[in-house]
Amino acid sequence: xxxxxxxxxxxxxxxxxxxxxxxxxxxxxxxxxxxAEFAGLLRKNAKGEVAEILVxxxxxxxxxxxxxxxxxxPYTSRHSGSVHSHPTRNARPSRADLEFFRVxxxxxxxxxxxxxxxxxxxxxxxxxxxxxKIV
Length: 135
Fold this sequence. Notes:
Layout: E1 15-18, H1 20-33, E2 39-44, E3 50-54, E4 60-61, E5 66-67, E6 79-86, H2 95-104, E7 107-112, E8 120-124, E9 129-134
Parallel strand pairs: 1-9, 6-7
Antiparallel strand pairs: 2-3, 2-6, 4-5, 7-8, 8-9
């Protein structure tokens, strides 16, 4: 199990389930974008698992920031949160990340370098750590 920074709470509350395919996509995109940050949006399947990563046209991938052009997000995207990478081993949210979290959904993933499952972290919209469960 990756991103075990949060403790088990006895149920599914506090856990973000991500399909293996979606996790692999996040890690590959982060590696391919390095040293710039990758950014996208999370979309869940009917089981409540993050199963798709939406890559939005005209997203800016910078070396110390990313910026999603929300004018290009489809109205039917039904995204549940965001994902982005950090080009360092620090996968904790910055102040800017926390502001971004509050307006882009309930769950968020940050993948830190070296972009392995153990370097992925999940947070709620207030920055509270969530357990990641890859399914």
